[in-house]
């Protein structure tokens, strides 16, 4: 596939994701994973998980950060050129942002007129549970792989993300420190990085 065709495919993929995702970056992750890992097979499950981890650690919305890293990886992987990777980053990022930008321009214009409408209230009431489901799906897809064979799903652990008992220990420690220890997320990331360097 030519670079131009790959860029167009990347742009269309992230344009659709940007237009159809409600609930912000975390809700986007399941759609991005489905397109990038399952549908197009541009990245492996493990590489996608790495991108999500990096996207959370760097400043900015996780959805946009993920698009930037995915765009770079896809084009760099296809061409071996860092410049092509940069164009991939720009393409994916702009395509993801464009629908939200246009929709928000329209919403800002009409929000004050329709915010008391029953239709608006009903739409929001339906969207909130869907957003919670998408965010939950984003967490699940990083841990398990589901393959549908007819009506019965085959569920297996994503082994690359949890290769041994040390990784499970890090997960449990990070969860406990965040939930009950109220450890600052930045400190938690730094401690996890240091633990990873020591253990691996």
Give a description of the structure.
- The mean pLDDT is about 85.
- The chain has 2 domains: about 5-155, no CATH class; about 165-200.
- Strand 1 (about 145-150) and strand 2 (about 150-155) form a beta hairpin.
- Helix 2 packs across helix 6 and helix 4 (about 60-80) packs antiparallel against helix 5 (about 80-115).
- The protein has helices at about 5-20, 25-40, 45-55, 60-80, 80-115, 120-140, 165-180, 185-200; strands at about 145-150, 150-155.
- About 25% of the residues are buried.
- Strands 1-2 form a two-stranded antiparallel sheet.
- The longest helix has about 35 residues, at about 80-115.
- It has about 200 residues and is mainly alpha-helical.
Largest sheet: 2 strands, antiparallel
SSE class:
mainly alpha
Overall shape: it is: globular
Summarize the helix and strand pattern as letters. Answer: HHHHHHEEHH
Tally of distinct domains: 2
Measure the end-to-end span: 37 Å
Computed Rg: 19 Å
Q: Total number of β-strand segments?
A: 2
User: Whole-number average pLDDT?
Assistant: 84
**Approximate strand percentage:** 5-15%
Helix content percent band: over 70%
Strand and helix map with partners:
Layout: H1 3-20, H2 25-39, H3 45-57, H4 62-79, H5 82-114, H6 118-141, E1 144-149, E2 152-157, H7 165-179, H8 185-199
Antiparallel strand pairs: 1-2
């Amino acid at each position: 596939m030519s670079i131009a065709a790959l860029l167009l495919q990347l742009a269309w993929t992230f344009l659709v994701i940007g237009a159809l995702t409600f609930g912000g970056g975390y809700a986007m992750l399941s759609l991005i994973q489905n397109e990038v890992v399952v549908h197009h097979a541009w990245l492996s499950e493990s590489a996608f998980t790495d991108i999500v981890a990096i996207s959370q650690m760097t400043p900015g919305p996780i959805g946009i950060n993920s698009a930037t890293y995915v765009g770079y990886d896809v084009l760099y992987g296809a061409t071996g050129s860092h410049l092509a990777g940069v164009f991939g980053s720009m393409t994916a990022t702009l395509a993801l942002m464009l629908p939200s930008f246009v929709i928000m321009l329209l919403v800002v214009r009409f929000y004050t007129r329709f915010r008391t409408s029953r239709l608006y209230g009903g739409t929001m009431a339906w969207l909130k549970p869907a957003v919670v489901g998408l965010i939950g799906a984003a967490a699940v897809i990083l841990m398990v792989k589901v393959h549908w064979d007819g009506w019965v799903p085959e569920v297996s652990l994503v082994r690359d993300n949890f290769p041994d008992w040390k990784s499970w220990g890090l997960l449990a420690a990070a969860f406990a420190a965040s939930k009950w220890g109220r450890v600052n997320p930045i400190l938690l990331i730094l401690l996890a990085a240091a633990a990873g360097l020591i253990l691996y």
